[in-house]
Amino acid sequence: MITSLNISEITSYLFISSFPRRENVEQIRELGVRLIISMYLLKPDKSLGEPPLKLLWMPVIDSPLIPIPLGVFRIGVREALPVIEAGDKVLVHCRWGIHRSVAMACCILIRKGYSSNEAIALVKRQRAVADPEASHILRRIKKYEQEQPGGFKA
Fold it and tell me: What range defines the domain where residue 92 resides?
């Protein structure tokens, strides 16, 4: 049985989804995705990293007690920007596409010129289940924005 991937198009170059499986590879390729950023503890199926796809697995915990390291966002953004600039697309996922992937997507948008508030609003509008305003996620998005050149300084 092929299960459809719970995927949301945030912009023409950025998608957020729940955990993809082997049977979702063709759907992902058809969207023009070239980079998958995986932020779930379980390693995705190796087929999700077979060319033309590239897989960046960064397992992190979704917990108010253990903040997502800012270095994780830096790495993800650093890998995503050249893909986007080349005209290709990026898919970010975690388990359900609610917190970790949403935070990464917001950080990518911040580096593309959005304010954190604009990024959060866009992600919420495009993905109904997204919860970037969960306190532990919002704090990381705001912290990432603060360290950007010209970013908001409180």
Answer: 7-146
